[in-house]
Amino acid sequence: MSRPIFGSPEAAARLLGLAADNADNTDDVGGGEADLRGRQPRAVRHALQVLECVAASGAGVTGQEISAALGLSRATTYRLVQVLTEDEYLVRLPDLRGFALGRRVATLSPPPAPRPPLAARLVLDRLRAGLRGGIHLIRLDGVVRAVVDEDPDFPLVPEPGVRQVVDGVCGELATGARSAARGADRWAALGVTVPDELGQPVAGLVLVAPEDRMPDAAEVDGRLAPAAVELGPLLA
């Protein structure tokens, strides 16, 4: 992340309870380094709970309502709300009656990658018709890797090994490997890089299947590689 989480070191110190003017908040924040494993982590947890409370309650929730909902003292609640507002994680509504989530909360969760264009989806449809297994298009050039076109007939399942093999393949492709393979917990994945016009990885085409049903590696590569070349100009 190129931008600091807090607007200034002083703001970070206030939220973590390091600033001298927080000495009176002895219920949730501490003073020096000796308290780092004691009260300060609790202050951070409380700050996150405040954000969760505002998100769940909706715009207009008041400090008093936050205090009651979380079981925090008013002094602690208002101190945390003040710091979160200063750093734009919360905003005070124009009528001054309550708070809402601020713009910086949105930066904690990057927006989803856009759906591939129709021409790219047609390439994927043809590819999936000729290979048995889940073929997924995964963007590699964003802040986080994102599955932008999941195989509708063989979706990714939340089983041990699936995330491991997909992450492993995508990690290799993102560093410039033309192709990669992984296996774990009865699952296997084979993938190839979708390059842009400069040869940099834009996305990965990854086939995931149970190890005992994975097609021959040469056949998979022979089908994925040409499709990746077609997809490159459509995604770059």
What characteristic shape results from the CA principal axes?
A: elongated
| Total strands | 7
- Poorly predicted runs are 1-37
Class computed from helices, strands and strand pairing: alpha+beta
Count the DSSP helices.
Answer: 8
Share in β-strands: 15-25%
- Alpha carbon gyration radius: 24 Å
User: Helicity range of the residues?
Assistant: 40-55%
Mean pLDDT: 81
Task: Please describe the topology of this protein.
Elements: H1 9-16, H2 39-57, H3 63-70, H4 74-86, E1 90-92, E2 99-101, H5 103-106, H6 118-130, E3 134-139, E4 146-149, H7 162-174, E5 179-184, E6 187-195, E7 201-210, H8 217-235
Antiparallel strand pairs: 1-2, 3-4, 3-7, 5-6, 6-7
Task: Provide the descriptors you would attach to this structure in a database record.
236 residues; alpha+beta; 8 helices; 7 strands; 17% strand; disordered N terminus
